[in-house]
Amino acid sequence: MKAVLNGKVLAEAPKDDLVHIDGAWYFPPEAVHSQEIEQSDTQYTCSWRGAAQYYQTNDGEQKDVAWAYPNMPDSAKERVGKDVSQYVAFDRAVELIED
């Protein structure tokens, strides 16, 4: 699966490597193209996943196109059934394309 924004591939991985949580597909960190996104200053905390890290495009034009939960609590890992700390999900503005 690919995460594409304005013709740029932000992440790419086999669908079997992704995790689906609450309507969003989470890509493993090694699948994310770090040359395309960087951390943003947006603050958010989920009631069960903990503090989120948001990302923007490296050119700064698209804010908060992705997010991750870098320090997911053990209770969230148990709920998901896997440690997906650092996995990255993308905003609906980002097109997800199945290979």
TrEMBL record:
It comes from Demequina activiva. It holds the Pfam family NTP_transf_9. This is DUF427 domain-containing protein. Residues 1-91 form the DUF427 domain. It comes from the Bacteria. InterPro entries: DUF427 (IPR007361), DUF427_sf (IPR038694). Gene3D superfamilies: Domain of unknown function (DUF427) (2.170.150.40).
